């Protein structure tokens, strides 16, 4: 099946790419999650719009990615969350929470879809998360999760 990606899918392509995938993969995974739309002749117009939006958000060069990486690694990120006794959180820290905390700490704007959590953050303390800025550049950001009072 021919589809148009609306978001980046690792191992498949970037937003705006037209790719051919197996029918079941498209029908059961990509389309329900909203990361792709079916390719149609009218959909070709959407491809240009998606690509323009990608160019605005995209970090174009490795040098630019390294600059953003240096800014991210120089920022101290603190999150205040509700926690119970024993340091367990009510819920978990999401990539959206991390992106807003980086911005409020004086760091650069980070797309929440580029933040990679190994395991969900469900406890107080210091944690490390990866931010994939470019296919070749990954920034490691330290985050301190504190209890809100």
Automatic annotation (TrEMBL):
Gene Ontology cellular component annotations, sorted alphabetically: ribonucleoprotein complex; ribosome
UniProt xrefs under InterPro entries: Ribosomal_bL9, Ribosomal_bL9/RNase_H1_N, Ribosomal_bL9_bac/chp, Ribosomal_bL9_C, Ribosomal_bL9_C_sf, Ribosomal_bL9_N, Ribosomal_bL9_N_sf
GO BP annotation list: translation
Keywords recorded for this protein, A-Z: Ribonucleoprotein, Ribosomal protein, RNA-binding, rRNA-binding
GO molecular function: rRNA binding; structural constituent of ribosome
Domain Ribosomal protein L9: 13-40
Pfam short name (any one): Ribosomal_L9_N
Source taxon at top rank: Bacteria
Record-linked PROSITE patterns: RIBOSOMAL_L9
Role description: Binds to the 23S rRNA.
Family note: Belongs to the bacterial ribosomal protein bL9 family.
Name the record gives this protein: Large ribosomal subunit protein bL9
Species for this entry: Streptomyces mimosae
Upper taxonomic lineage: Bacteria, Bacillati, Actinomycetota, Actinomycetes, Kitasatosporales
